[in-house]
Specification:
two-stranded antiparallel ribbon, 427 residues, mainly beta, 22 strands, single chain, Porin, 3 helices, 16-stranded antiparallel beta barrel
Length: 427
């Protein structure tokens, strides 16, 4: 029932939106709607105290492995931003945006890297529904939380916060699906939204059938059987209010879906998780304007996730096992950004995973604590189209294959340059 409810609502809204404009106002000339085009380049130089051959094997125990460097899952190769020591061409991003007609706009964001090309976002948005209602369809970044909707070039740091990347992966919740939002007619900003998504995030969600015979020839892949159709549901409420020169923005979010985490082809300890996943989020942003160009911004988000299912693997003797697995994990990031003028910005960020409870067949598996990361950056803008950043971080969250903590020191020199028309980013 859930899988047909939102599409039905969207279709009704679109038909209603088409009817609220009288015929005499529907005159349309396509020549007036030439797309805005922009191209964004991101490159970096990385100096990390861990060799490239080792960094891909590091893990946050009980949470995730392969956050840094490049790693493979089956036929897929994943290269994170700033993956290698030395020079990195992280991506080129082509953005196309235009009105379609009096009823819709369309946006396309295409991601080019040395590994290939992908559609990062491609969606239409209604603009004629009225009553504070807006619908979106296609592939897009979910409005879960605060940071998830933003693209890499809009981030205040060169890398994603630890808790976001550990729980959701480098691209966050970026899915094919539909979204409906309603903005209340209140004196302050108040918005509620709901999304139904395909559910293919490989870090936490997923719904595919996984062939377990890759782990063990005698295993039955049907025990990790997937599902058809949309499987991820996201809801959120966001509010904002101005108090003098200070803007407050806060929100709560929730996501629920099936979970298939496939590490069946890993060289070490191949395994598959099949179950259900829930993700809770709370965010707060406080922006205080000091004058026309300078400001201070405090931004923080808390994420909590629950995974409940079965993990399929082989034991040390090579026997196929399928223990129940329950994970309850949470963490946050908090950052402070000072904008000095039109050219200079600087900031610090603290990342941590606070709770890391892993229960296997009813027995709690002890996990290390102190999964923290500290980051500082300073950046110079020659204009609104070009910025150059120096970032330094100390990461205490990663452990090697021998279970020893690695202290990772990283310096990143980043250049982010864009040409063409590009919409302004939210604060």
């Amino acid at each position: 029932m859930k899988k047909i409810l939102l599409p039905s609502v969207l279709c009704t809204a679109l038909v209603y939106g088409a009817d609220i404009l009288p015929p005499e106002k529907r005159t349309f000339d396509q020549s007036k709607f030439i797309p805005d085009i922009s191209l964004i380049m991101d490159a970096s130089y990385v100096d990390r105290n861990v060799k490239d051959a080792e960094v891909g094997h590091l893990e946050v125990p009980g949470v995730v492995h392969g956050l840094l460097g490049s790693h493979s899952h089956g036929d897929d190769n994943h290269a994170t931003y700033n993956a290698e020591n030395g020079f990195n061409l992280n991506y080129a991003e082509l953005v196309l945006s235009s009105s379609v007609d009096p009823f819709f706009t369309m946006d396309g964001i295409f991601h080019f890297s040395e590994n290939g090309v992908e559609i990062e976002e491609l969606f239409f948005t209604s603009n004629a529904l009225g009553h504070g209602t807006k619908v979106k369809g296609g592939k897009f970044n979910s409005n879960f939380g605060y940071l998830n909707e933003q693209h890499h070039h809009a981030w205040d740091f060169a890398d994603m916060p630890l808790v976001y990347e550990a729980f959701l992966g480098m691209h966050g919740i970026n899915e094919v699906g539909a979204q409906i939002q309603w903005t209340a007619p209140t004196p302050f900003y108040l918005m509620a939204g709901f999304e139904i998504l395909q559910g293919e995030n490989e870090q936490m969600f997923g719904k595919d059938t996984i062939d377990l015979t890759v782990i063990n020839a005698a295993a039955n892949p049907e025990v990790a059987e997937g599902d058809d159709g949309a499987s991820l549901y996201v809801g959120y409420i966001k509010a904002s209010h101005d108090v003098g020169n200070t803007t407050l923005l806060g929100g709560i979010s929730y996501a629920q879906g099936e979970s298939r985490i496939n590490h069946s082809t890993d060289d070490e300890g191949p395994h598959v998780f099949s179950g259900d996943a829930k993700l809770y989020g709370a965010d707060l942003v406080i922006l205080h304007a000091l004058d026309s160009y300078s400001s201070i911004k405090l931004q923080t988000e808390f994420l909590s996730r629950e995974l409940d299912g079965i993990q399929y693997a082989n034991d040390t003797l090579g026997n196929f096992i399928s223990p129940t697995m329950v994970k309850k994990q949470n963490g946050l990031y908090s950052q402070l950004i000072y904008t000095h003028d039109k050219n200079w910005r600087m900031g610090v960020r603290y990342d941590t995973i606070m709770q890391n409870d892993v229960e296997k067949d009813g027995v709690m598996i002890e996990q290390p604590d102190g999964l923290d990361k500290y980051t500082a950056m300073i950046e110079y803008h020659t204009s609104e189209f070009a910025r150059f950043r120096v970032q330094y971080s100390q990461d205490y969250s990663m452990f090697n294959e021998d279970g020893q903590r690695e202290k990772i020191n990283t310096i990143i020199l980043q250049a982010n340059i864009s040409i063409g028309a590009h919409a302004a980013h939210s604060f």
